[in-house]
User: Fold these one by one.
Assistant:
Number 1:
Amino acid sequence: MTKVLEETAKECIRWAVGSFDNLKMSTGLNVSGLVLVDLAAKAGYQGELLFVDTGYHFPETIKVFSELDLRYPEISFIKLSAEIKTEELYLSDPEKCCQINKVDPLDEYLKRTGTDALLNARTRASSPSRRDLQMVEAGQICRINPLTLWSLEDLDRYLAENDIPPHPLYELGFTSMGCWPCTKATKPGDDPRSGRFVGQGRLECGIWSKSS
Ligand code: SF4
């Protein structure tokens, strides 16, 4: 099964590379992100990987970003961040904190660079909020999701078969990696993203909820 998923994902990436003038890729460096970067490199993607550094990431996540930069020289690793830092806004207004520190820096960069399509690593299996995810989401910026149908087990198997180290906190139960104030470890069988935004009444940061 993984081979079929793998070939489908690579075919999707090749289609995107050949179809859009200004394609980019974005990931939060979760297990699916690590798989996507590897598949994209093998499928011939030689563009940018965008990572939004909120200033609140675990140090391990920043280290993963640096290691990927060395592992995939054909891809340009770009770190984006908010121009103005806000002090502990995640305590008083987490949605505004995400807007300022995650959504706005990515939106601003995509608009400034005239990006017309964005590869990303979302999967249906990661969260109830993603159960209806389609492989291609048309819009002003087309969202392309080559890993739509992958389960957590598929992702794990791919990393193992391709000798790709997982995020160092993954084995401790961090099945979806976000900022340290808003990310908890999950238990076996939980939705992978159930450790995100715990107690905040939401499942998404807002990056993927926009229609444009
Ligand atoms: S996940 Fe938490 S710390 Fe990170 S930007 Fe959103 S509210 Fe702020």
Number 2:
Amino acid sequence: MAGATRSLGCRRLLGTHLKNLLHTKHCVLFDCDGVIWNGDKAVAGAPEVVSLLKKRGKSVFFVTNNCTRSRDSYLSKFSRLGFCDVVQSDVVSSAYCSAIYLRDMAKVQGKVYVIGSDGVYTELYEAGVPVVGREPDVPGATIYDCPLDSDVKAVLVGYDDKLNFLKLAKACCYLRDPNCLFLATDGDPWHPRPRGRVSPGSGSLAAALETAAERKATVIGKPSRFMFQCIVSRFGVDPARTLMVGDRLETDVLFGRSCGVDTVLALTGVSTLQQALGYRDSTDPQGAACVPDYVVDTVADFLPALDEER
Ligand SMILES: [Mg+2]
């Protein structure tokens, strides 16, 4: 039975099939990196796809694990890359959702020690969540003599290309308190970089801290459902009428499936068709949760189906 279900995955979305599917969906969730842009270059046709979906009355959200930018900074990037009709509430980042979680779910009573970059700090400031972690240490400071803040009640770890041993050590000290919350913006293991290079993602940093603290972080980003809950609670979208488009099977597709949303793998990013078929043909039940319903070469494949309605 399970095999029969899996064999339905990875269907190529083309022509009338694609048009009919889009007709049944009121909301489209896009991952960003590897789907609508790669680094600082828009995927050809992606701005037109977003614009046409909106013109057709669809809700469009950008659900990204990339926590390095605030939503305002994302808006600048959208505009620069030719996405003209994106507004702040369309952007649902792991940095923003971490701030919402800390303020509205955890209702943290105290400060949050942050390992992260601008996006995380800005979103926490804007949500009114008190933060520490950005103050420069005095030269030569060590874990033996650096100050610790007794008001810290949570540790949040995200992508931080200035991570150093002292930051990790301070976070470990805070996490010795079992009542101190431990959150990670996302669990992404690594990110593709130009010329075939890669860099460690937030998940790698969180893993270092999890090992040292002997605790597991609560992960906010995909594949956790929290980011979808943020959208549902604010905009009341219906999972059955929603489509998730991503490039990473273990985050985007798993996220969509666990939220009860149909999923599309775009082959412009990290995961390959071979990997998707490997999950589909595997007997591993965990792998089955990473099988996309549909596959497109690029989001530009949506254009003919949307163009015809002009
Ligand atoms: Mg991606």
Number 3:
Amino acid sequence: MYFLFGLLLLEIIYAVFLVSQFYNVIIKKNAPLVTTGQTTIKKIISELDLKENQTVFELGCGRAIFLRTVEKTILKINLVGVENLHIIYFLNNLFLRLIGSKIKLLRNDIFAVNLKDADIIYCYLFSETMKKIGDKVLQECKKGTQIVSRTFSIPQLQPEKIIVIENKRVFFYKMEIVNIDKKAKKW
Ligand SMILES: C[S@@+](CC[C@H](N)C(=O)[O-])C[C@H]1O[C@@H](n2cnc3c(N)ncnc32)[C@H](O)[C@@H]1O
């Protein structure tokens, strides 16, 4: 009886997940949930200038693996994940609380969250979203903020470096050396 109830619950969760993914991708034109692998995350972290008391954002955090890896690397750091899908947010938040993580999860759209306190931003989104992300970081981020985007470049910004990790380009930006590219060149 309990087994059947558990199975039904899992099926309901999976159906809700599929419907919300469909809505997010097809209707809202947002990125689907695809998780960045540990090898990529560890390499990215090794390239970043991470320090205690910084604030790190993962925009469209999904399972927040990037933040979870940072948390294991530096204990005294502020970690904020932003995720718009209720089902992903709910399951991930539950999991993070169970493992005693201090990551703060926000159930919100990326574009509704202010990034003025961000020292580091990680995102793995969609090409269509990156122009808007560029406008947002130029408006809100302070000098020195490091921004990392997997696969998709930010057209208005000049990358500090581009590294290929596991066959995908990863773009590193730093707000103090940002050059606004008027032609919105695609990197
Ligand atoms: C490609 S996945 C990346 C997940 C995670 N950052 C990683 O690299 O493993 C993109 C995630 O961003 C979320 N997302 C897409 N557009 C969003 C938006 N506008 N606001 C908040 N979350 C968004 C999706 O639901 C999905 O979980």
